[in-house]
Specification:
With about 450 residues, the protein is α+β, with helices and mostly antiparallel strands. It has three domains: about 5-85, Double Stranded RNA Binding Domain; about 115-210, Tyrosine recombinase, N-terminal domain (DNA polymerase, domain 1), CATH 1.10.150.130; about 225-440, hpI Integrase, Chain A (Orthogonal Bundle), CATH 1.10.443. Helices cover about 45% and strands about 10% of the residues. It contains 17 helices and seven strands. The chain has helices at about 5-10, 65-80, 85-110, 115-125, 135-145, 145-150, 160-170, 175-195, 225-240, 240-255, 260, 295-305, 325-335, 365-375, 380-390, 395-400, 405-425; strands at about 20-25, 25-35, 35-50, 50-60, 270, 275-280, 290. A four-stranded antiparallel beta sheet has the order 1-2-3-4, with helices on one face. A three-stranded antiparallel beta sheet has the order 5-6-7. It is elongated and about 125 Å long.
């Protein structure tokens, strides 16, 4: 028997159906015909002991002649060492099936392992949703700085080095305080996971917040009366929205927070009774608060009424669909106090130094602190100032048993503050500044 050639095999027709072909080495081929054409099913006959057996080698042309002969050689080599090719083929098949099953199980387990992305979603739905903003700010922070780095990792695979990578990226941007805040936020999320047995160990537990970005510094910036007067003269050069100018004086004269100003509604304002109600949902501590307006503050709200474009919001966004974003006012003020030589960002104000003051950069929250400090310098009692700031009493005993509202005292405090601001911002150049008593400065958080 000679070797079969490709030419010979390709010359087969349907008339050869059932024909048997032979090749050296006990290779046997059966000609078949079906709708796909003519093919040859090859096999190898061999003996194990007294038993004659046959093993399939492949079907030409789906398998090449070389592949068929290689499979025959593999079978013959096994026979030469006393192994049955069919048995070995079955064992190999079973091993492959086991390997595939193991791989599939591993892939399924990997798919079922919770990623940091999924953990954040669960934390948001079960925990963050109970926060005042339903976790919107936390999601913004995580989508910007955490999830791009950790999101696709399995929660159980997150290590200290991964957490440090997130923190270091923030430190490299120079936002040290944000790095500390982000570490705290990640710690909250991983402890949430730990409490639910998603992980055994919190990867943030061995990282000390104090070691991140140096010591925390408490901001105590307070505008002097000279700076307040200077601010009044500089505001026209800042080319701010007139409503933003009003927001500055309202924050200073009421000691309110930037968020409380931005979210204020006309329905909460009663100029006849001289009150501005801040509902619990707009307050940082979740406590409703009533501000008793001075003439100075009322003048600002009266001006806002002439600019009114929304039936609901005192400070609407540009398309009147919601209140203005508190970050908007903060950015407007920051863009006008850029460091020397620093160029404004594209699309932002070109009046880069128009609101710079003598003692350095100031923020909306510094206006709240400044108003509280002026109250103290005017002789207002600290407990009354705390009421005006809507602070929660830190002493648990007092918080439990003392619930006096001190309304008359608060009215007096805001009136004194308003009168002083009226005097400072007037054209009277003979105003004698009150000496600043830093001991009376309140950290108006």
């Amino acid at each position: 028997m000679a070797k079969l050639t490709i030419k010979e095999l390709d010359a087969l027709t349907s008339a050869d159906k059932g024909r048997t072909l032979y090749e050296d080495g006990n290779i046997r081929g059966e000609v078949r015909v079906n709708k796909n054409g003519v093919s040859v099913a090859f096999s190898y006959r061999y003996r194990v002991g007294k038993a004659q057996k046959e093993i399939r080698l492949g079907v030409y042309p789906h398998a090449s002649i070389k592949e068929i002969r290689d499979r025959r050689k593999w079978a013959a080599d096994l026979l030469s060492i006393g192994k049955d090719p069919n048995l070995e083929k079955q064992i190999e098949k079973e091993l492959n099936q086991q390997a595939q099953a193991a791989l599939k199980a591993k892939l399924t387990a990997n798919e079922q392992r919770m990623t940091v992305n999924l953990l954040f979603d669960r934390w948001e739905k079960l925990d963050l949703v109970n926060r005042k903003d339903q976790g919107k700010e936390m999601r913004r922070m995580f989508e910007k700085d955490v999830l791009p780095i950790l999101g696709t990792l399995a929660v159980e695979d997150v290590r200290k080095a991964h957490i440090i990578k997130v923190v270091d990226a923030l430190l490299a941007r120079g936002v040290n305080r944000m790095a500390k805040l982000m570490l705290s936020a990640m710690r909250q999320m991983f402890r949430f996971a730990q409490d639910r047995d998603i992980i055994e160990n919190d990867p943030t537990s061995s990282i000390r917040k104090a070691k991140i970005g140096g010591k925390d510094t408490i901001r105590d910036r307070c505008l002097s009366e000279v700076e307040i007067k200077d601010l009044k003269s500089k505001l026209p050069d800042g080319h701010l929205l007139k409503s933003t100018e009003c927001a500055i004086w309202i924050m200073l004269s009421t000691c309110c927070r930037i968020g409380e100003v931005c979210k204020s509604e006309w329905q909460h304002l009663d100029l006849e009774s001289r009150t501005w109600r801040i509902p619990a949902e707009n307050s940082k501590n979740g406590k409703a608060h009533t501000i008793y307006l001075s003439d100075f503050a009322i003048n600002q709200f009266e001006l806002l009424k002439t600019l009114r474009t929304s039936d609901k919001w005192i400070f609407p966004n540009t398309i009147n669909t919601d209140h203005v974003c508190e970050k908007s006012i903060t950015k407007q003020l920051g863009d006008r106090q850029l460091a020397d030589g620093r160029k404004p960002m594209r699309g932002r104000s070109k009046h880069a130094d128009s609101l710079k003051l003598a003692e350095g950069k100031w923020t909306p929250h510094d206006l709240r602190r400044t108003g509280a400090t002026i109250m103290g310098n005017l002789g207002v009692r600290p407990d009354v100032i705390e009421k005006c700031l809507n602070h929660i009493e830190q002493n648990k005993m007092k918080r439990t048993y003392q619930h006096q509202s001190l309304i008359a005292e608060q009215q007096q405090a805001w009136r004194l503050l308003g009168e002083r601001l009226e005097l400072i911002t007037s054209n009277n150049h003979n105003v004698i500044p009150i000496s600043t008593n830093h001991a009376a400065t309140h950290a108006a958080a």
